[in-house]
Amino acid sequence: MKRMSTTILLILVLVIVIAVVVANLPEQTTGGPPTGGDPAAVEIARPAGATLSHIAYVHDGDTLYLQPDGTTSRADEITVRLIGIDTPELRPEVQCYAVKARDYLRQQLPEGTEVWVESDRERLDRYGRTLLYLWKQDGTSVNLDLVEKGYASALTIPPNDSYHGEFEAAERAARAADRGQWGSC
Prior knowledge:
By secondary structure, the chain is of the alpha+beta class. The protein has a single domain, classed as CATH 2.40.50.90. It is built from five helices and seven strands, in the order αββββαββαβαα.
């Protein structure tokens, strides 16, 4: 009987130790799908190869103009289409939430703001716009932030799909919480 009690006690101690170790494991930060429906769990870290640029002008929720670092001429500005997302259109007719998406992006990225940029597999879209992912100085992914807050939907156009999973997960969470356009349009 004493031997059985010792075995049970050892098993209980082992279970407690395993539970404590598992509870203290670091969370993965690979940018996978959110856990528990929390969109904040989705992250896209700024890549080491991203380059510095500056906001010249925000046209709408997913199109803007950049002034590359080290340039000052308006002729050097680059027209950018944010990769992996789509916001409501301002033209030919103003769609629901288009003005809010543009105004939010303008608030987040006022003219002169430093941003870090990186392209995916294709550099230009069919309209000649440079396709980019953007990060703010604090490390926030601009593209992902727009989806998380409901200003944009996920839009995958292969082969530019590096963060497809993260954008899709963020859209599901925004829709479920009726954030932005999902609760208004």
